[in-house]
Amino acid sequence: MNQDTQLKGFVRRDMFFVVAFFCLALGFAAGVITGTMYSPPKAAMPGGMPPQGMPGGMPPSMPPQGAQQQSQGGLSAAERAKLLELEQAVGKNPKNIEAQNQLGHFYFDHGMPKEAIAAYQASLALKAEQPDIWTDLGVMYREVTEYQKALQAFDKAISQNPRHEIARFNRGIVLVFDLDRKEDGLKNWRELLALNPNAKAPNGAPLGKLIDEVEKQ
């Protein structure tokens, strides 16, 4: 899969930060964003198996992906059945890495970041060499405002796969919008551009253009 296809295919868990950033970029252009990411109700995002990618857009006032997901108490009957199936699979074989990951992904996608963190940690304890899972773990840490742990998780993903574009992009989100380290975040995104000069958001907006918008703030 080439880089452009990979970037345009980012539609699952790791798209959360990208979407949030792109909304902010749209807001910057309109002059309506203050320069920091708003702190919405915490909830879910995606995982580390299929290709991950760059942003689409939604209004800055719209809650992020996780906030639109149901809490555990609000799961449908089918979702509760699926959760039970995943939990039973892990219970029967706690050393099943794939089962741990699938359980983590379910929690991720249904607004349960603390549970997702536990599942991903269990998976990584069995097999540390999983850059996608480290990336998803970082996303979940950011959801519970553990920003330094989020950075550490993204760094781990990048150390295992230096070309992991979503880990690099999400790392920049935390630096710029959560830790007020704008220059560090921009440097992070420029490094991503150096890896893939054609990096684009799903709507086709070049990453360089998004960087320019943040630099103006």
Structural features, described:
The chain is 61% helix and 0% strand. By secondary structure, it is mainly alpha-helical. It has a single domain (3-65, 76-215), classed as Serine Threonine Protein Phosphatase 5, Tetratricopeptide repeat (Alpha Horseshoe). Helix 2 (15-30) crosses helix 9 (165-178). The radius of gyration is 17 Å and the shape is elongated. It starts with a helix and ends with a helix.
Which structural traits does this protein have?
217 residues, mainly alpha, Serine Threonine Protein Phosphatase 5, Tetratricopeptide repeat, 11 helices
Write the layout of secondary structure elements.
Layout: H1 3-8, H2 15-30, H3 65-68, H4 77-92, H5 97-109, H6 113-126, H7 131-143, H8 147-160, H9 165-178, H10 182-195, H11 207-215
Summarize the structure.
The protein is mainly α. Helices cover 61% and strands 0% of the residues.
> What gap, in angstroms, lies between the N and C termini?
35 Å
**SSE class:** mainly alpha
**Poorly predicted runs of 5 or more residues:** 1-12, 14-70
Q: What order do the helices and strands follow?
A: HHHHHHHHHHH
What's the structural domain tally?
A: 1
The CATH architecture comes to Alpha Horseshoe
Radius of gyration from the alpha-carbon trace, in angstroms: 17 Å
The name of the CATH topology is: Serine Threonine Protein Phosphatase 5, Tetratricopeptide repeat
Number of strands: 0
CATH class: Mainly Alpha
Portion of residues in helices? 55-70%
Percent of residues in beta strands: under 5%
CATH superfamily annotation: Tetratricopeptide repeat domain
What is the molecular shape? elongated
SS field, number of helical segments:
11
Task: Tell me about the largest β-sheet.
Answer: none
